[in-house]
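lol ok so funny story. i was supposed to be doing the assay writeup but got distracted and ended up predicting the structure for this chain instead. priorities right. anyway since i did it might as well share w the group, maybe its usefull for someone
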Amino acid sequence: MKITVFCGSSSGKEDIYVQEAKNFGALLVKSGHSLVYGGGSVGIMGAIADSVLQNQGDVLGVIPRSLEEKELAHRGVQELHVVRDMHERKALMASSCDAFVALPGGIGTLEEIFEAWTWAQLGYHKKPIAFLDINGYYTKLFSFLEHMKEEGFVAPNLLAMAIFESDQEKLLERLSSYIPPSPKWK
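and the output, tada:
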């Protein structure tokens, strides 16, 4: 399976974020998966790409020209696409993968995973969407999404589309066995 990973171009405050990104990269390769990601060589992005490469896995990076220097494009990946803009980046990453996973990151990470999730809601794809909850990073987000559901702004089946998991192996198992819920709006 080709897995698109959205994650931070920074490393975060705690060392566990980088370490778990490296662990996830190694697990991807061990499990026979390849990485599709944002093409950077820094932060969590660089850590997961380096880990996949060190474990002899395949990496496809996609980076907009405007971020090529800022995020220090990773020149060691097997395939690096430098594209015009973020729209082209996300479209290429989406068309190149079988699943989406968010590791810790900032606003860009959330925007990317939520757009992929919205595309699933609209029926543009049936690929699984997952959040790897490292060190409780996404716990408050999960709570807020539950609140949105309780308040009637997120349909239960839409929330059921996403996989929230703190165990990396379980996350990969759930991606592999994912069956998309029926598309209903309420």
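The first strand starts at residue 2 and ends at 6. The chain has one domain: 2-173.
back to the writeup now i swear
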